[in-house]
Task: structure prediction
Amino acid sequence: MYIREYSEGDYSSILDIYSKSKLDELKYETDKFELLPLDKDEARYSQILESDVYVYGATDVIAFCAFNGSEIRALFVHPDARGKGVGAQLLEFMLSKINGVAILYVAASNLPAIKLYQKFGFKISSEFMTTYNDVNVLANKMEHL
Result:
């Protein structure tokens, strides 16, 4: 397995990983969410397109990440590949590419992700209200110095 730059041939894999993973980050919320596929979510899709995107996998892509400047915008691992350190490897990779303070945003209720980020030195710097598919979500901004 290895990390490489995204290519157009990875498009369907990224859409699949996102669709199978996005709602997992919101499963600790009290509200229920309906998936808005990445290619239908104009704001998130445009953020991914303007980012540096990398995929993880040899023949099959099992995860992807994206960052723009110092902002980590995506880190998604296919459910079948979780618990094997893939997310941690992608996070380490992005941190090695980012100069200065890295930032990311995470649902405040997603304690497993927050704990992972804290293991890598991220700290919660603020809390704010955002939305996903028109439903309010309390989120944390996290920074890595």
Remarks:
- The domain at 3-144 is CATH 3.40.630.30 (Aminopeptidase).
- The chain has a mean pLDDT of 94.
- The chain has one domain: 3-144.
